Amino acid sequence: MLKRKESDHIYQHAYVPEHLIDYVTAVSGGTPYYVQDYLCYLQRNHLIFIGFPLSANPVKLSQVYPAVCERFNPHSITLVADDLSGLPEGEETQPADRYYRLDLPLKSLNPDVAYMVRRAQRELKIEVGRFGREHKKIIKDFVGRQNLSAAQIHIFKNVSTYIKRSTSAYLLEARKSSGRLVAFSIVDLGSAQHAFYQFNFRSGKASVPGASDYLFDEMVRLAQSKGKRAINLGLGVHPGIRRFKEKWGGKAFLEHRSVLIQREPALDISKLSKKL
User: Fold this and answer.
1) Structural contact between residues 220 and 212, judged by C-beta atoms closer than 8 angstroms
2) Whole-angstrom distance, CA of residue 35 vs CA of residue 53
């Protein structure tokens, strides 16, 4: 478990979504720990090790890895980092990608983007909402339309748990004058310096051009009003998502690698002696 001092330190220095405690614990069911500049989550015999350090002069990941294995003795480890050199080989859990970041304040909008925002403003109203059946239905329909991995489906199924548990996540929803939900985004402000663009979902039945741009614009305004210096826009994922982030000025800034390492846990002599 985390100490108060550790939680405060993580809040001050978090810069990737995996540093958001409420998000990862909601999705993984793991318990967070802070070990020598790094955050990890233990879920029974599986460890999620976040290899993005939370200090300016961190201990090398390759040096911390043995200490983590000794402390938690996991059967398997999901390791997420920008550089896996000097670490045991593992099975890649997703293709190599890059995080995108938008620096704040945002000085100006691309004319085409500004037009789409104004276009959506004519039909929609955006407010901070509460997660409910409408949002759950849109996520369910989205999952049904997409070719997603089991891991991605698991994350989307736990969005409701995350948004209800988190004290720093905001649900921005775009509705028509009739009250019909058209799209919604989830932004997390759980870092002193960064906001995080977590999710964006659009209805497959009630579409309004520019809805996602309008939501993005409101997210930027919210982040700026809270004094954030940048927004982590998440991974590139595929060309369409990358184009959307880039047209808003997002730039790739950090590599993302993820591997699953299977290991033989060390023998616990104390447990063995009890059995004998």
Assistant:
1) no
2) 10
Residues present in the chain in total: 276
pTM to 2 decimal places? 0.93
Q: Are 264 and 74 in contact (CB under 8 A)?
A: no
d(CA 16, CA 13): 10
- The whole-angstrom separation of Cα 112 and Cα 94 is 33
Q: How far is CA 125 from CA 7, 99, 180, 213, 217, in A?
A: 36, 30, 10, 13, 12
Provide φ and ψ at 153, rounded to 5°. -60, -40
- Low-confidence residues in the chain, pLDDT < 50: 270-272, 274-276
Helices vs. strands in the chain: H and E counts, helices first: 10, 12
Position 107 scores a pLDDT of 86
In angstroms, rounded to a whole number, what is the distance separating the alpha carbons of residues 20 and 38?
A: 13
> How much is the pLDDT for 134?
96
pLDDT of res. 145: 86
Bridge partners of 172, per DSSP, are 128, 185
Tell me the DSSP string of 110-135: -HHHHHHHHHHHTTEEEEE----HHH
Q: Which of 16, 17, 57, 55 is nearest to 34 (CA)?
A: 55
> Which pLDDT does position 272 carry in this prediction?
47
Closest CA to 126 of 188, 210, 226: 210
Report DSSP state, residue 238.
S
- Round the CA-based radius of gyration of the chain to a whole number and report it: 20
State residue 276's pLDDT score: 45
Q: What is the predicted pLDDT for the residue at 267? A: 59
